[in-house]
């Protein structure tokens, strides 16, 4: 049984607490939050501490706070030579204070407050300084997820950038699609199945093989008609750049 | 029972033939293809015709050919005052020859040869010149899909542009994500669940409410670190423009 402490009370911290609460291999010893109320719906009050000095012994401390607070929080921990990890996609393992054994426990997912997540399909990217610590992280990660990967800080950086493209930017394209629908009184409902199918295809096809549309076909009659149709300058600009990028990629293949 | 003829043998035509073959309300009378071999795996040979003059009487003729061939094909049909529709997202109802009753039967989906589709969830956008013809189209459409919409030529234009954003461009962002992974020896597998989750969220959330990430947070430390990390100028450019667009949208709200 791995004794675990969560430090933080944000979105990721809360989802981790929920997920580990159902694990039979992990026991949540405590969680740290500046405000007790933030976690009271998830844990018994006596397990929530508001001072670092109240932290008990654990096998693993997971710091899940905003990226820029990680160095400060890790340096304030009142113990040494324990396994302390952060959950950030963009932050190197090295920002953690060296008085403890360092690691990373990065769940690669987008967590919204309003939407439940199935942790079992969320990839968790692990990094540690030594093999024994990796085993602790792996046991904890595998107890909540079926997709656990060993990923170095450098690889994690690449992954986070790639995730911005496939998640943040993709979602923004959905938003533009919705805006175009609303501008022309078309129900966005009509587009929702296409959004699902676009993602669904990527389960089995490589993106380059799934690419369709006027840009890919070099159908300039259609792409020019679309550019004439779009009135918003920002949307027009995005249309041009992504059309060009699809066509330039096609040339390379 | 609606008597139906399909004119064309491309991706969409073939998917329509497959879908209507399972419908109890529609009978495929014939299909037209320049080359008989193109459809021989889907229909009895005697139902496949290679000359317009061999076309029999039907309640509905669906022209599913490339956009620029629609006017020519519709003018070559050797009959008058029949219901003739096309399946194009970008083409007005008016390109059809006026000797027949015109309409549109546009399945809004991306059809790959290598991937089976479940037609029941594919939105079909219908347009006709009169109510009786609309009823024929609606009966045929509802026999293969649960998502049938009345959409004018103008609305269809908007829909097609929006579809380019949520499908073609989104898929291209997946491709960029994969390229970044490959460049840094990270398995693209790690990102696939995130792609699914990003689409999944849109079943219940509006895109603007689902938006997360450094751009949305105006976290310029992270966005600048990402821009430093990206070496490909095209990727860098797309990153900048979409980050700016997310932030400008945020301001409007």
UniProtKB/TrEMBL annotation, chains A, B:
Residues 4-86 form the Pyrroline-5-carboxylate reductase catalytic N-terminal domain. Residues 122-246 form the DUF2520 domain. Signal peptide: none annotated. PANTHER family: CONSERVED HYPOTHETICAL ALANINE AND LEUCINE RICH PROTEIN (PTHR40459:SF1). This is DUF2520 domain-containing protein.
């Amino acid at each position: 049984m791995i004794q675990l402490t969560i430090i933080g009370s944000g979105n990721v911290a809360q989802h981790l607490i929920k997920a580990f609460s159902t694990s039979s291999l992990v026991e949540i010893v405590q969680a740290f939050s500046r405000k007790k109320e933030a976690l009271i719906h998830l844990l018994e009050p006596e397990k929530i501490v508001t001072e670092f000095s109240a932290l008990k012994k654990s096998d693993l401390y997971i710091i899940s706070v905003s990226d820029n607070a990680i160095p400060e929080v890790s340096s304030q921990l009142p113990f040494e030579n324990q396994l302390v990890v952060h959950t950030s996609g963009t932050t190197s393992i090295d920002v953690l204070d060296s008085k403890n054994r360092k690691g990373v426990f990065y769940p690669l997912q987008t967590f919204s407050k309003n939407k439940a997540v199935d942790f079992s399909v969320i990839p968790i990217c692990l990094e540690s300084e030594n093999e024994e610590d990796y085993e602790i992280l792996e046991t904890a990660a595998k107890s909540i997820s079926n997709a656990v990967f060993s990923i170095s800080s450098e690889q994690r950086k690449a992954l986070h950038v790639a995730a911005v493209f496939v998640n943040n930017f993709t979602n923004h394209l959905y938003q533009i699609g919705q805006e175009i629908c609303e501008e022309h009184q078309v129900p966005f409902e009509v587009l929702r199945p296409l959004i699902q199918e676009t993602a669904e295809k990527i389960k089995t096809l490589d993106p380059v093989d799934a690419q369709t549309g006027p840009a890919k076909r070099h159908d300039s009659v259609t792409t020019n008609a679309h550019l004439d149709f779009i009135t918003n300058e920002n949307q027009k600009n995005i249309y041009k750049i992504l059309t060009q990028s699809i066509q330039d990629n096609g040339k390379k293949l």
